[in-house]
Design brief:
The chain has 289 residues and is of the alpha+beta class. It folds into two domains: 117 residues, 2-Layer Sandwich (Gyrase A, domain 2); 121 residues, DNA-directed RNA polymerase, insert domain (RNA Polymerase Alpha Subunit, Chain A, domain 2). The chain is 29% helix and 33% strand. A hairpin with a 2-residue loop joins strand 1 and strand 2. Helix 1 packs across helix 7, helix 4 crosses helix 5 and helix 4 runs antiparallel to helix 6. The longest helix has 30 residues. The two termini are 35 Å apart.
């Protein structure tokens, strides 16, 4: 009998997505998690031309800071070519690169912090996600002039092209309990970190609770192993057939878009693998076509 496959939304926020995955094998779930880091393209600054800089930071440090500023990429995925379709270093190709400019100057008695919001973009669809990321502190009579070029890239090339700050999955924690059999030491240990859980246990008296909240169950596991070992009234185990997946975006793409792009990347890899295997079979004479 085929195992039922389900995806249930647990939490949705602008930069965060949590969902329950059921009926899918662990290798596939983990592949999607890894692909969120490595195979989803986003925009990031790759080249910087510094025309003038007498600030405290070297050109290379400023370029590095600029590269790590998240850039909006939702529309960029439709407008710009993927990295594999662009020639490396051809920054004049407007189909591959978006241009941003930074020009800041301080007066004789002026000090200021240069922020990501000071970047001017030639393409409104490619701009800093956040305006308050500091780049450099400028002293009086200093000047910073540069032009930056952003392109689509993959996290497997460099961390600046990773669209997620978190992509993780875990087994679903399950608590089985009987209030009449739980020892006081066990219950007190759990209550120190999870008072809401103890409240549920006392209210239900006996039963089973699936913990779908976004919490760390390490302390609960410690209580189960150290304070509830000889206790028949409390058991903690993990369902290895069901997973809670958490995706947190840097803001370049929505979490939903990231997951869909990750799935598409895995599908393309699978199709490419099948094509190569078929080619090998034909060359070896196993398949005649």
């Amino acid at each position: 009998m085929t195992e039922k496959r389900k995806i249930r939304l647990l939490e949705k926020a602008p930069n965060k997505l949590r969902f329950l995955v059921e009926g899918f094998p662990l290798p596939l779930v983990n592949a999607i998690r890894r692909a969120c880091f490595t195979d989803v393209p986003i925009m990031a600054i790759d080249y910087v031309e510094v025309f003038e800089n007498n600030t405290v930071l070297y050109d290379e440090i400023i370029a590095h800071r600029l590269a790590l500023i998240p850039l909006t990429s939702e529309e960029a995925l439709k407008k710009y070519k993927r990295p594999e379709n662009c020639r490396e270093g051809d920054i004049g190709d407007t189909n591959c690169y978006a241009v941003l400019r930074l020009e800041v100057e301080t007066g004789p008695m002026e000090e200021r912090i240069v922020y990501s919001g000071d970047l001017e973009t030639f393409d409104p669809d490619v701009r800093p996600v956040y305006d308050n990321i500091p780049i450099v502190v400028m002293a009086p009579d200093q000047r910073l002039r540069l032009q930056a070029y952003a392109r689509l890239g993959y996290g497997k090339e460099h961390a600046k092209w990773m669209p997620v700050s978190v992509a993780a999955h875990k087994y679903v924690p399950i608590v089985e309990f009987d209030v009449n059999k739980i020892g006081e030491e066990c219950l007190s240990c759990i209550e120190m970190s999870y008072p809401w859980l103890v409240e549920k246990i006392k209210k239900s008296k006996q039963g089973r609770i699936e913990i779908l909240e976004d919490i760390n169950t390490s302390a609960l596991y410690w209580c189960a192993q150290r304070k509830c070992t000889n206790n028949e009234g409390f058991k903690l185990h993990y369902d290895d057939k069901r997973f809670i997946m958490t995706i947190e975006s840097t803001g370049s793409l929505s979490p939903k878009h990231i997951v869909l792009e990750a799935v598409n990347a895995i599908v393309k890899k699978a199709e490419n693998l099948l094509t190569q295997l078929d080619k090998i079979r034909k060359e070896s004479g196993e398949v005649r076509g």
